[in-house]
Each structure stands twice: as structure tokens, then as C-alpha cells.
Amino acid sequence: MKKRSCVRDFRDQVTDPKLREEIRDFIRQEGQHGMIHDQFNQRLRAQGIDVDMLERIDRFMLFGLLRKYNSAKFTLAVTAASEHMTAIMAHSFCNRREVMEQADRRMRAMYTWHAMEEVEHKAVAFDVMQKVAGVGYLRRIAGMIHVSIGFPLHVFLVTRYMLKLDGHRWWKRPAIWARGLWWLYKPGGLFSSVLGHYLAYFKPGFHPWQDGQMASYRVWLEAFQRTGDPVAAGEAVQASAA
């Protein structure tokens, strides 16, 4: 989802200089994020993956459904909720060595950079939602419920396509799905370990920075400032993971 467009809807109403600067940084980061994904998608196309079809699904879900039939305030609430989801995913991905252990170090660098980016601006959409748009608790929670349904559905559609593309026959896929879901949601699994972070969003007084910065962010930032190399920074995070 092009999250910057949902924040941009309210940019002209922002009077706080600090928040205006954070919005500029957010939009710039999301733009860089988009450019990297475009380059990555070109590699996927070269491997025969129908990226254009997947992007059409994204555009339909954002512009054909969400923004067409809902208010700007609700789409901002969805954006704030999705930012919280990606931030807690960043926590789980970077703190669990097993997640990226078998990945190519260049892919590990890209996904680690992406995770750090999500952590850096995780509160911007939330602050605009509360301080500028005046979104109340019920609409905020409705946004999270929307994301909690829509995001897994999107992941399911993409994963189903990728399993088919990898040559897994339909009768073998249920076992693959079962192993993956168990890995994610078993006691101590990838997502069950961050359940508390997810549920915190439903507290009336919640704010994304209540949890502070994750330790792996400081590891990544120190390594990148020292070397200027995102691959080295990604490897430093991987080495620090449990």
C-alpha cells in the first residue's frame, strides 16, 4: 500500500514544525522504499514472476476498494495500523536468527534495511492520525481490524501464487501451509512471540514509541555508520540475533 499518500492527505493541516519534518522524512523514506522495490521487482520479472499481476492486486486493494469507499481519516487509520504491524514484524524478523539465516546476504541486507526503515518512522502516521486528523479510538481500532484481516489475505494470495510458481502440486501445498503456520503461531513462534506488541495497539492510551527502539536497530545503525555498507550492517544484525 502506498502509505505516503494517506499521510499526505493531511500534510497541509500540520502546524507543528517537528511533525512536518517527520512527515517529510517519512515520505522520502517511503519513496526510497518504492525505488528499491522497483529494482527488486525487475529481478523477479526476469525470473518469470508476474509482478505486474501482484501489483494490480495491491492497487485494487488500495485505490479500488480502500480509498474509493472510505474516508481519508479511515485510510489514515489503516495506514497507522499497518505501520504498527510492519514495526512489530521488524522486531520479530531481526531478533530471530532463523528467519533470515538461509537467505543470501544481499537479500538479508535489503530486508534488514527495510525493517530499520519501518522502525524509524513507525509513529509518524499515528501522530498525524491523532494530532491532526483527530481520529478517535473506535476508528483507530477499526483500522487495525481491517489490517488484521486484509494483510493475511494478501499474504495468502501471494504465497499461494509463489508455491504454485515453485512447482509444488496442489496436494502437497496443505502440508507446506501447515508447517508454515505452525512455525508462525506455535507457542514461542515468530508471531506468537510478538502478540503482546500487537495487542498493545488496542489500549486506549497506546503510542508506538512506548516500546522504545529495538536493540537490533542500534546494532544496525552503529555498523552502517562505521562501514557505510548495508550488507555489513545486515550481517551485524544477523550475528546479534538470538
- Count of spatially separate domains: 1
The count of DSSP E runs of length 2 or more, i.e. the number of strands, is 0
Shape annotation: globular
Query: Beta fraction of the residues?
Result: under 5%
Helix content: over 70%
The SSE order reads: HHHHHHHHHHHH
- List segments where confidence is low: pLDDT < 50 over at least 5 consecutive residues: none
Mean pLDDT: 90
Count of separate DSSP helical elements: 12
The CA-CA distance between the termini, in Å, is: 31 Å
Structural class: mainly alpha
Measured on Cα atoms, how large is the radius of gyration? 18 Å
Biggest pleated-sheet summary: none
Compact overview of the structure:
The chain has helices at residues 3-8, 17-46, 51-69, 72-95, 97-100, 105-120, 124-132, 137-165, 173-185, 195-200, 215-227, 230-240.
Walk me through this protein's architecture.
The chain has 242 residues and is mostly helical. The chain has one domain (3-240). The protein has helices at 3-8, 17-46, 51-69, 72-95, 97-100, 105-120, 124-132, 137-165, 173-185, 195-200, 215-227, 230-240. Helix content is 74%, strand content 0%.
Please specify the SSE layout and strand pairing:
Elements lengths: L2 H6 L8 H30 L4 H19 L2 H24 L1 H4 L4 H16 L3 H9 L4 H29 L7 H13 L9 H6 L14 H13 L2 H11 L2
